[in-house]
Amino acid sequence: MITKNIVKQPKSLVEITVTAPWLDLQQSWDQTLQRMALETEISGFRKGAAPLPMVEQQLGARLQDEALKTIMPNLLIEALKGTDIVPIDYPQYQLVSFVKGSQIEFKAVVTNRPQVSVGAYKTIKAIKPAVKAITDVEEQKVIDDLFKRWKARLPAGQPVGAQVTGNIGQGMANNQPGQSGSISFNGSSQPQQSAVADQPNDEFAKAMGAVSLIDLKAKVRKDLEANSQYNNELDYEESILQEVEKITSVELPEILIHDELNRMLVSLQRRVADMGLLLEDYLKSQNKTLDQIKNEWRLQAEKNVRMELGLAEIARSENVNITDQELQAEIDKIQDQKVKAQFEQQEPRLHLRHALRQTRTLDLLKKIVGA
Fold it and tell me: Is residue 130 one of the residues assigned to a domain?
C-alpha cells in the first residue's frame, strides 16, 4: 500500500513524499528488465536470449535508473488521486531510498495549479476610445512611400505600364492575421511607353492594381481605416484585461513567471532580428545584460500572468469551453501544411484550445462591459 506525506509550500509548490512496497513496483521493474534484455548482448548467448537474472546482474544501476523513470511517475499519479493537487509543471524527483524486494521512498516537488480569486468582473468598467481618424497627410505619406518603392523596383528605362512582379506588402492593415491588403505590384495589362513620372499618377496606380490614382487613394484610406479600427479594438481589449488583472488575487508560481519572461524574450529577439541585429549586439547597445532585462521585465511579467490566470478563472466560472469540432475547424483554416501538421501532437492542440478559450472569454467580457 502506498503511503504519502504532502507538504504545501509558498508559491504553489508542493512536496510529496511517497513510500511504496516492492509489490507495487515489481510489475514495472520486470517489464523494464524484459524490454532492456532484448537489446542486451551477453557472451555465449544470442542478443536478447540471455537469462533474465544474468541480464539483470549485468545491467546493474542502469536497470534501476530506467525502471525508476516509470515507477516514480506512476506512484506519484497514484499518490495524488483524491487530492486537490493539479501539477502544472514536470515533477522534480529525489530518490530517498530503494531496496529491491523491499520498498521505495522518494520525494517529488511539483507546482500546483494556483488558487485564483477574481473580483466582481461583471461590473468592470472600460471606455472604448474613439477610432482615430485618418488624415489626408497620412494617406499621402503611404502613397508617396509606395510610389518611391515602386520606382526603385523598375529597371532602368522600364515603361511605366509594364508589369512589375511581386507584392508591396499585406496592405495597411498588416496587423490583422489572415488579411491581405488591396495594394500590389500587379502590372497593367496595357503597357504604356511613356517615361516614369516624377509624381504618383494613374499609370502608377494601375501598376498597384487600382483603376486610377483616385481609386488607389481610396484603397489606401480604407486599409488605413481598417488598421486604425483594429488597433482601437486592441486598445479596448487591453483596457479590459488590465481591469481583470487588478481584481485577480493569486500567489503566482515562479514557473509561470519564468515562462512569461521567456515569451517576452522571444518577442524581443524577433523584433531585434527584424532590425537586422543579433540579440547580443542589441544588449551591448543598451549596455545591459540578459538578467538585467529580465529583472526590468519581471513586474510586467507578473501582471501578464495574473491577467492570464484571471481570464482563465472567468472562463471556468462562465463555463466557456471549446469543443473538439471547434478546435479542428480552427486547425483546418491553417494553409501551411507544415504548421498544420504540428497540431497532430497533443501539446500544440492544448495550447490552441486554451488560446481560443481565452479569446472567447474576452469576447464575453466585452459584451458584459458594453452592456
Answer: no
Mean pLDDT throughout 318-328? Answer: 94
> Count of domains in the chain?
3
Give residues with Cβ within 8 angstroms of 313, minimum separation 6.
116, 117, 118, 248
Query: How far apart (Å, rounded) are the C-alpha atoms in residues 228 and 26?
Result: 65
- Beta strands 3-8 and 92-99, pairing class: unpaired
Does a structural domain hold residue 80? yes
Nearest to 308 by CA among 241, 234, 238: 241
Query: The whole model's pTM is what?
Result: 0.70
- If asked whether residues 239 and 251 sit together in one domain, one would say yes
- Average pLDDT value for the chain: 87
Same domain, residue pair 206 and 240: no
pLDDT band at 167 (very low <50, low <70, confident <90, very high): very low
226 contacts 172 by C-beta, under 8 angstroms: yes
| Domain, as residue range, for 350 | 228-370
- β-strands 13-21, 3-8 pairing: antiparallel
